[in-house]
Amino acid sequence: MNVRGIARRAGVAAGLLALVAAVIAVPPGHDAAASAGEYVGLLPARIVDTRPGYATADGRDSGIGTRTPRSTTEVQIAGRVGVPIDAIAVVLRVAVVDASESGFVTVFPCGTTRPLAANLTHLDLGDTRSNAVVAGIGAAGTVCVFTWSAVDLVVDVSGYVPAGST
Fold first, then answer.
1. What CATH code would you report for 37-161?
2. Among candidate residues 137, 18, 123, the one with its CA nearest the CA of residue 75
3. Model confidence over 93-116: pLDDT tens digits?
4. Distance from first CA to last CA of the chain, Å, rounded?
5. pLDDT for residue 28
6. Domain-by-domain residue ranges, the chain?
7. Which residues of the chain have pLDDT under 70?
8. Which residues contact 102 (CB under 8 A, 6 or more apart)?
9. What pTM was computed for the model?
10. What is the pLDDT of residue 13?
11. Is-contact 143 77, C-beta < 8 A?
12. Integer Cα distance of 154 and 56 in angstroms
């Protein structure tokens, strides 16, 4: 390896080290990020688990039962698990468990028209799949989760976008 290659690798390593240091120095949920109008990361917290016997971080929306086909479940986001009441968007991990047939899930701000796009598709009977989703939060602090087929839903929050962000 020549001197130029060594210098380039050292620069990449220094950049990665700076990124790791920044992540450690500014932990998820730090107020500095919120005041700057940026994404605020949170430790993942489960807010929906429709399966019997499974818990959520705050006890809400736990064991509420398999979602029926072509139904919409309203999920309170604002004011739960570290998401402020005036947050404008949320970062979620949405999973379907034990799908009854092929189908899809769409997450959108409650109070708006459901978009004609899917955030997650599942293809087979019994499928379990998940996907990361960024969704706007409706005026009442909720997101709606539309399911095409009967499924159990699991939803985790991993961050939010505070009010005042662009």
1. 2.60.120
2. 137
3. 999 999 999 999 999 999 999 999
4. 45
5. 47
6. 37-161
7. 1-37, 166
8. 121, 122, 123, 124, 125, 127, 149
9. 0.78
10. 37
11. yes
12. 9
